[in-house]
Write a structure and sequence with these properties.
alpha+beta; elongated
């Protein structure tokens, strides 16, 4: 199946045709009906319509011609290399290779038997032959053959005419000879009749014998004369027959010469056919070369595609989060790279996790600040001398604890936050003894945090004895083991207590007690004060 074109045989009613091949822009697709460019419209990216419907039996062809006037992508130094640009650049080369392959496969090629195959196609636009081995067109061959045939037919007609004339002459001579023979026969018959009459007259009268003998002699003389005339006529007929034979031979020679000419022309036609075969061989060689070039182009395109695929497997481009697979949805390979747009950093896949290989913009700023503040303050002596002195510059110590350094770097935002509140840190440092005290009782602190809650709704999963400040009711409550109960100072509602008791004497404060029910009790005492 072709890669860049499709052909249909029209049925006189179909107007919609599928476009199975890919294309970059619609203008690269053209339609032809029996070789004539025809307008059409796309009804979808893979369907085209021709209106009115092409007539039954006509060949409808849709083909793609990739624009090779300019490159699809012009790369420049320092530009970001994206998958889209690489794809577009290689698609242009890939489609051009497909079209070259289709052109080569549709050309005249050499079969396994060493003969050229035009694939049942007509060869057109062939020039008239010049050299003996040049190919010829149908028109040229038919014109040449017709001319040679006309010459042969004319020569044959002339020979036939000459032969007819010779036969006519021979027939006339034969007729003359026959006429002479008839005259001689008549004379002989007359002589015979005279003899018979003489014999009869001898019987009748001897007197007439002499006369009969004289007449017989006369008849004999006439017979001789008749014989001599007949021989002369026969000789004349023979001479005419010889002339006819000679003329016929000349005509045969002429016809033979015409035949030789026809054979020569046929040989020249064969030579022209041989030339056509040679040219077909050359055309096939050109087609083979074109096919080889197309194969080379396809190989180059394949190599480029493979290189591109390998590159995109190594560099995944810009992404907002750590990818789990490469751009082909395959497993990540160790050493794969991508640029994090979330942190503006390059990352590398170690085989198990993504590692940052470049600092963020903020960290780079801090690095630049540190680099600008590095001042050499110590003479370390000769380069060949051992470094034995120093004041707190233990690089090896830092290197041995690089994991801690990396941990700090990973939490640099927190470090910066602490740096901004260094005064508070110093305050805490001055009271470190209290901090240590709290740290020594951290279990009690944690227990307090678990047992005392402040919220507007009941805490979940409480334990018996837990405290809860209900901010909605402004009441401190404790958990009985099954429910929350309020802790209230003093008696705020006797009604809420089903069995209230007094811890001392009840002082009415000169207030009246109303709606009192039955007052009972063994030790009930009422003090009415002084009576007057």
């Amino acid at each position: 199946m072709a890669n860049s074109y499709i052909e249909y045989t029209a049925n006189g009613s179909t107007t919609s045709f599928a476009i199975p091949f890919t294309y970059t822009v619609a203008s690269e697709v053209a339609a032809f009906v029996n070789g004539v460019s025809t307008s059409f419209t796309f009804t979808s990216p893979s369907t085209a319509s021709i209106s009115p419907a092409p007539a039954n039996g006509l060949v409808v062809r849709f083909s793609r011609t990739t624009n090779l006037t300019t490159r699809a992508v012009d790369f420049s130094n320092g530009a970001i290399l994206t998958e889209t640009d690489l794809d577009n650049s290689n698609i242009q080369v890939f489609q051009a290779s497909q079209e070259a392959i289709d052109t080569a496969q549709a050309s005249i090629f050499k079969d396994a038997d060493g003969k050229f195959n035009a694939q049942t196609r007509v060869i057109k636009n062939l020039a008239d032959p010049v050299s003996a081995q040049d190919a010829v067109t149908k028109s040229w061959a038919e014109t040449g053959a017709s001319s040679q045939l006309a010459l042969t037919v004319a020569a044959k007609t002339a020979a036939a005419t000459s032969e007819t004339n010779a036969a006519s002459s021979a027939t006339a001579s034969a007729n003359s000879a026959t006429a002479s023979a008839s005259s001689a026969t008549g004379a002989a018959s007359s002589a015979t009749a005279a003899t018979n009459n003489g014999a009869a007259q001898v019987t009748l009268a001897t007197a007439q014998v002499a006369l009969a003998t004289t007449q017989a002699g006369l008849a004999t003389t006439q017979a001789g004369l008749a014989t001599t005339n007949g021989a002369t006529q026969v000789a004349l007929a023979t001479t005419q027959a010889g002339l006819a034979t000679t003329n016929g031979a000349a005509q045969v020679t002429l016809a033979t010469a015409q035949k030789a000419i026809a054979v020569t022309k046929a040989s020249e036609a064969s030579a022209s056919a041989s030339t056509a075969s040679t040219q077909a061989t050359a055309a096939s060689s050109s087609a083979t070369a074109a096919a080889s070039s197309a194969t080379g182009a396809a190989s180059s395109a394949t190599s480029a595609a493979a290189s591109l695929d390998s590159f995109t497997d190594q560099y995944l481009g810009a992404k907002s989060s750590d990818p789990a697979v490469d751009n082909d949805n395959n497993a990540l390979v160790a050493g794969a790279l991508y640029f994090s747009t979330a942190s503006d950093q390059m990352k590398v896949w170690t085989g198990s996790l993504w590692e940052i290989i470049s600092p963020s913009n903020a960290n780079q700023t801090n690095i630049d600040i540190v680099a600008g503040n590095i001042v050499h303050t110590e003479d370390l002596g000769s380069i060949t001398a051992a470094i034995t002195t120093g004041s707190g510059n233990s690089i090896d110590t830092v290197g041995g604890a690089i994991a801690n350094v990396n941990t700090v770097a990973g939490a640099i935002a927190n470090v910066n936050t602490v740096g901004a509140g260094i005064a508070n840190v110093n305050t805490v440092g001055s009271g470190i003894a209290n901090v240590n005290t709290v740290a020594g009782s951290i279990a009690d602190v944690n227990r307090y945090a678990n047992e005392y809650k402040i919220s507007s709704s009941a805490p979940a999963g409480p334990s018996q004895g837990d405290l809860w400040l209900d901010t909605a009711a402004s009441v401190l409550k404790y958990y009985t083991g099954s429910a929350w109960s309020g802790i209230i100072s003093g008696i705020t509602s006797v009604a809420a207590d089903s069995s209230p008791q007094l811890g001392g004497a009840l002082d009415g404060q000169n207030n009246n007690m109303t709606n009192i029910g039955t007052i009972s009790g063994a030790n009930l005492q009422l003090d009415f004060g002084g009576l007057s």
